[in-house]
Amino acid sequence: MNTTPPRALLPAGLRTPGRWAVLPAAVLAGAVLGGGYGAVKAPEYAATSYVIVVPAEKADPGAAVGYAQAYGRVATDIAVTGDAQVWAGVTADTLRKNVQAETSPDAPMISITARSAKPAQAVSMADGVARALVLDSSHVAGSTGVKVVQFSRATKPLSPVSPSAPLSALVGGCAGGLLGGLVLLVRPRRPAARGEARHSRQATAPAASAAVPAPAVAPHQPEAV
Asked: What's phi and psi for 17, nearest 5 deg?
């Protein structure tokens, strides 16, 4: 008959329920912090303006794609040195931080995306940078053989692109649960758990030795003379 206590059959982690309280606490803390950040942070709006690079007469059409890549890399520099900051009503540092230009590898088109807490300002920044590219290209069109033209003006965004408070709370809860799980994995076992394991091994050792019978000793017989 097995006389082992039921407690000894459970893993050490399950015999310490306080250890697992770290996980729900981490999830709750992450959700609260993420939701608070989403509620306090001002919403951010994005507006995108498109320009296209076209070759001049008797110019190589394939060069337009290469020049589009070049203009895309220096879009914010051209906007800062030009009048884009005046048209947008923001500083040069704001343009560098909140305007991004992207190009296509197979089309001579540049998308200029501006982000701002105000929808109208995001539109002004995107169109301002596009206008600066158009003017700069017209000054050097004689040497480059291409020019930048406005393809599509930016439209006023109706909804923010920044995450809402519920979404931030969900992301924060997931991140908190992940960190809590890592803490449980790397946290060393408590000395009490190690002491219980040592005590159980010592308690089972005498029982194992008692189950093995000792060898019988033959009685000493006197020798006959």
From this structure: -65, -25
